[in-house]
Amino acid sequence: HFGTAFQLKPSFILARLDFAGICLMNGESDRAVEIYNNLQSLENVAPDRKQAIEFQLGLYEMYHTKSESNAIHHFMESLTIRYGTKEWKKCYTKLEQIAKRQITRNPHDSRPWGILGFLHREAGENSEAVECFEKALRFDRGNEEYLSALRELRPST
Q1: Which of 14, 113, 126, 144 has the maximum number of C-beta atoms within 10 A of its C-beta?
Q2: Does the pLDDT of residue 86 top 70, yes or no?
Q3: How far apart (Å, rounded) are the C-alpha atoms in residues 15 and 90?
């Protein structure tokens, strides 16, 4: 029935995401990946729908392919859409959990501090973002991503 619905109305993005989830539960990961790839290739997708796609891709990467770095990419991508949906909040929470877990494992790793800086910046918490990016730079001196974020957050006066 899902397949017929998608043929009749290809814009049923949320239904397609649900169907991909059902495929994963049924062990049909190839079909789920096909659906995710198809959704990613769509153009003119409303911001809240694009955010939902990126969030679900992040969950897929995190729990099915066990790729935390790919999950981080999709969650961060979702946050940059800044539409204020519940997916934005969920992505924020997931990224915060990942970063804190990584810091617990290795407090001298720059990546989780950079993620926290990104989160604070996206939430408009600039002083906290600066603090995190500075900490990230202590462990990865010269990292252009962190330096660029700090330049953006602290423009010269």
Answers
A1: 113
A2: yes
A3: 19
CA distances from 122 to 28, 63, 80, 94 (A): 35, 25, 7, 14
Find the mean pLDDT for residues 135-157. Answer: 91
Residue with tokens 């392919």: 65
Measured in degrees and rounded to the nearest 5, phi and psi for residue 12 equal: -75, 70
DSSP assignment, residue 142?
T
pLDDT(99) > 70: yes
Query: 12: burial class by Cβ within 10 Å (0-12, 13-18, 19+)?
Result: middle
Tokens of 64: 């099915």
| Confidence tier at 5 by pLDDT (50, 70, 90) | low
Rg (CA), the chain: 18
What DSSP assignment string belongs to 69-118?
A: HHHHHHHHHHHHH----HHHHHHHHHHHHHHHHHHHH-TT-HHHHHHHHH
Is residue 137 within 8 Å of 110, Cβ to Cβ?
A: yes
Q: Are 118 and 76 in contact (CB under 8 A)?
A: yes
Q: Average the pLDDT over 52-63 and give the result.
A: 96
84 pLDDT band, cuts 50/70/90, is confident
